[in-house]
Write a structure and sequence with these properties.
alpha/beta; Sulfatase_CS; 31% helix; Alkaline Phosphatase, subunit A; 2 domains; Alkaline_phosphatase_core_sf
Length: 507
Amino acid sequence: MIKQSVKIFLLGLLVGMSFSKVRGSDIPKKNKQPNIVFFFVGDMGWLDTSVPFYKEVTALNERYHTPNMERLAREGMKFTQAYASAVCTPSRVSLMTGVNAARHKVTNWTLIKDESPDNDDEVVKSPDWNLNGLSPIPNIPHTFFHPENLPLLLSQNEYRTIHVGKAHFGALGTPGENPLNLGFDLNIGGNAAGGPGSYLGIHNFSSTWKGSGNTLLDLPGLEAYHGEAIYLTEALTREGLKAVSKAVEDDKPFYLYLSHYANHPPREKDERFYQNYIDQGLNELEATYASMIEGMDNSLGDIMDHLEKLGVNDNTIVVFMSDNGPHPQVPQNLPLRGHKLGPYEGGIRVPLLVKWPTVTLPGTVSEDCIIIEDIFPTFLEMAGLNSLVNKSIDGQSFVPILKGEPSKSADRPLLWHFPNTYFSPPYSAVRKGNWKLIYYHVDQKFELFNLKDDIGESTELSNTNKIKTKEMAELMTKLLKETGAQMPTIIATGRFVPYPDQVYSLH
């Protein structure tokens, strides 16, 4: 009897030890909510990378050196038809809310409270848009009120939400200026600014070294790096690594929103990579831009290496995306036409890479159309918060695509709306299937393209395919009405620019 009791005791002890060992290792970790890293960059074009998103390798693919983007593409899924808004703040409000820019009405970039960056136009006037950006508090003029933003929903469901880098959600002096008001538990470097005063630590990341005295673009939480010979991208990366380490130490699932200011102006070289591009024969501007891209890619590698070092790589989703196309100052993303702020593919088509261990097959490619507001429901579903996914009004989760399931939205229409008189003439654009229609508000002109046959949007078809143009104009009108999109005012008459179907019915 004693021997039997001893055997039972020892068996129980071994089982207990085994259970204890399991509890601290693999099985529970697989059941944990996955960590999510959203590596979001500024002003990076579809082809500003050595990862080919086009069917052919382009000259820009050969110019830039982004080995860590290549690594992410090998380990995850590459999306060749991903889209954002044509300018930064609309994209950022959409990803936080799951709402299209036409509906949330933050249609241009924001900075100073109650001040619009829009220019005067002789023909039309911009609408009374939400120039103060996103707000978690109601009844603030010219803001889009949305209390249940993505980081808040994650924070309410066990996640530690970490904001590092560019915010640009709301104007100075409004609640949306501070990421901590929008659901983030930690904020390093984020405020109302769309770009830094400087990328250089020796200048305290400020423009005051130029003698301007302007501190509007100064960044919070980076004082420890002031005076150091360090590039902003590297400083933000170090802060991101520290925050992730602390979350893992505290056994908390984390959402790291690492939103690099690069590759947004000002153009300042990252000395770690600049000379290599000069040696290749690039001019100063080209080499500076290329060094900013490679510095950003180096940050991506540091993050991925750190996840492996901490032992959380297998339970961490990494998503890479850009907020809009490249600035007009830098090389055009040929064969794409256009650049940031414009309606052509060069302004709105962006790189998207997703690594989801054990879910997404490595080295896969998707041609499904994805748009920036899809981030909101996708991340909620990734986190296992399926009951919250329907809080997205316009975005659709692309988790099924990541799981290798057939797409259910092949003919889903995508809408862009920029009724602002800033840099580019105001416009609306819609894509459905291979067809894309652009409607210019000033002269009520249409442009129709078949993107399958003409990715460079060089052959305009509205006059030769009037049936498709009429169909797309009616679809665009339907979407503009459903979202309550604002139209500019025609100065001469005081009336709103007509909807596209009203104009095309006269053709």
